[in-house]
Each structure stands twice: as C-alpha cells, then as structure tokens.
Specification:
The longest helix has 22 residues, at about 90-110. This protein has eight helices and ten strands. The protein has helices at about 25-35, 60-70, 75-85, 90-110, 125-135, 150-155, 175-185, 210-225; strands at about 10-15, 15-25, 85, 110-115, 120, 160-165, 165-170, 190-195, 200-210, 230. α1 (about 25-35) packs across α3 and α7 (about 175-185) runs antiparallel to α8 (about 210-225). By secondary structure, it is of the alpha+beta class. The protein is elongated, with a radius of gyration of 25 Å.
Length: about 240
C-alpha cells in the first residue's frame, strides 16, 4: 500500500450516493486507460470505499451493493476510478508536477545527445534551463513517456538535441576481466563479447547515448582506469583503442 500523502481521491457519484477511493495518481490514470497491469494492493492507500475519504465516512452497504453488485473493495476500487473523476489538491498537483518534471529531465538526459558537440550528453542543468526557456509545461496527470516527444519538439529550437543510442566496445585487462565484465555487460544490451587469448575480455554494449559518461566511469572503476574503449560506428569494427 501507499501512504495517504501519495494518494489522490477518485470519486464516483451514482444512484444518489458518493463513492471515494484513495489511490496512486499514475495507477489511477493507467486504470482509466485500461493499461494497468500491476497489483492493486500496491497502489492504494486503503482497501476500502468511502462516502467521504477525508473524514473516513463509509457509504451504506446497500448503496454499494446496488451500484457495484458487490461489497468487495478490490473489485469496486477500479470501477470507481474508471467511471469516476480523479480529485487532486493544489499541493498534490504541485508535488506531482515537480516529480514529473524531474522524471522528464532524467529521461531526456539519459537518452539525448548534442549533435553539434560530437554527440556529447547534455547536462541536466542545460536541459532544465532549456525547458524553462521553451516554456514547456508539465502535465501532472499524464505519464512522462507521453510528454517526451512534445518536450523534444519544443527543445529543438532552443538547444541542438536528438535521442540516440551508442554502441561501445570495452576491453578489460586480464586482472580485472573476471569481476568487471559482469558489471559492464549489465549496463546495456550486450551485443557481443569475446575472451582474448591473454585473458582480457572485450564486450560490445549498446545503451542510451546520454549515459556515455556513466559508462566510462563504470569501466574505469572496475579496471582501475586501465580499460580501453571505442565507440563502434560499424558493427564489424570491434577494435578498441
């Protein structure tokens, strides 16, 4: 379950009665869209149906049975969300907007590069300033994923940016290959790997281009700075530098 502070109220009025449930806002939107596939108990603040959630008042059992044909809260909660309205306070809206803003910036930073700077990643501060300059408004009631394309369209006149992936070959020396290769291979999609005759390991990994600095930091960490890396632009080019 989630805390009351994290929950929003979904409200349905029917047959002269009111029914309210407390649920995570993202889960509520997913239920409305028919896209929720999680465990309902993980996204509600109470396994209960209220007449007034803020006071903890409950509707008459006969009203619940008449409207929903059951008194099982776990069956009723999704129905209230699907058929009702989602209520959020001004403070909840501010908090949700801030959470979505941070998540949006993180998504862009992880995936975007600067094509005018040899595809270097954009720092979070630059993306944040550019979003403000572009006048992009976060919708707290929409998933971050559905706002990324619009954000990119508004960012492009402000900063050079594009979403991309990068493929990098990393060669770990023999003394670090055994322990280091596991962390490197998990960083992204392992395209190819090869153990060399001297005991060194070469792995070719594809990941969001905005994570290049994190990848190089990881490779240096697991090899004490002795690894060699090379960006792969041709899938047959597996030499390292």
């Amino acid at each position: 379950m989630i805390s009351l502070d994290e929950a929003v109220t979904a409200r349905l009025e029917s047959h002269g009665a009111r029914f309210e449930v407390l649920i995570d806002p993202d889960a509520a939107l997913a239920i409305k869209r028919g896209e929720f596939d999680g465990d309902l108990e993980d996204v509600i603040a109470a396994e209960d149906v209220f007449d007034n959630a803020s006071r903890g008042d409950r509707p008459a059992e006969e009203d619940v049975e008449e409207v929903f044909g059951t008194t099982d809260a776990l069956e009723i909660i999704p129905e209230v969300v699907r058929r009702g309205d989602i209520q959020i306070t001004a403070e909840q809206r501010r908090e949700m907007t801030e959470q979505k803003r941070k998540a949006l910036i993180n998504t862009i930073v992880r995936n975007a590069v600067n094509p005018q700077m040899d595809d270097a990643p954009h720092p979070p501060e630059r993306v944040e300033r550019a979003l403000e300059e572009a006048g992009f408004k976060i919708d707290p009631m929409e998933p971050v994923e559905s706002q990324v394309d619009e954000a990119l369209d508004m960012l492009r006149p402000v900063i050079p940016i594009r979403f991309d992936e990068v493929t990098v070959a990393a060669q770990l020396p023999p003394e670090y290959a055994g322990s280091g290769q596991a962390k490197v291979r998990e960083f992204g999609d392992l395209e190819r790997e090869e153990w060399q005759s001297d005991g060194s390991w070469v792995g070719v990994v594809t990941f969001p281009a905005g994570l290049q600095n994190e990848f190089y930091d990881l490779v240096n960490e697991v090899s004490s700075g002795e690894a060699e890396t090379r960006i792969i632009r041709d899938e047959d080019d597996l030499n390292t530098r």
